[in-house]
Amino acid sequence: MSSTLQPSARRQEAARGLNTHVGEGVFINAGCRFQDQGCIYIGDRALIGHNAVIATLNHNMDPAKRANLLPAPVRIGEDAWLGANVTVLPGVTIGDGAVVAAGAVVTKDVAPNTVVGGVPAKLIKKL
Asked: Which three-class secondary structure state does DSSP give residue 90?
């Protein structure tokens, strides 16, 4: 059975991934969702566990301006490891060699060679 996309759906299909930059040797597991209008940069050899979410758009906190979209890039460093079901919010940088524990919600930058976890993600240890 084949499916036919309407013209607007075809445009959306073609636009997917245009703002996602993936390095060499990156592994992205099943079920991940990348919302990349603000740009996503994934460094070499990064590992991303299943069902991870990377968001690059937010909304204004002022109710009168809430419909406005606020893009901010997400950067994932080389050799970083994001566990299963991680959520990374707009504007976050995850440093080289960092590990984000499964289920964490990353709201702030993660230093290189550290382990973070929790909601919101907090430092667990330095590697």
From this structure: coil
17-33 tens-digit pLDDT: 789 999 999 999 999 99
Name the pTM for this structure.
0.85
53 vs 33: CA distance, rounded Å = 5
- Taking phi over 0 as left and psi of -120 to 50 as alpha, with beta for the rest, 8 belongs to alpha
Which residues lie closer than 8 Å to 26 by C-beta, 6 or more apart? 42, 43, 44, 45, 46, 47, 48
The structure tokens listed for 44 are 């070499």
Which regions in the chain score pLDDT beneath 50? 1-14
**Size of the chain in residues:** 127
- List 10, 59, 65, 122, catalytic entry: 59
Give the pLDDT score at 122: 98
Our answer to whether residue 21 is catalytic in this structure is: no
Query: Any idea which residue has 């050899």 for tokens?
Result: 45
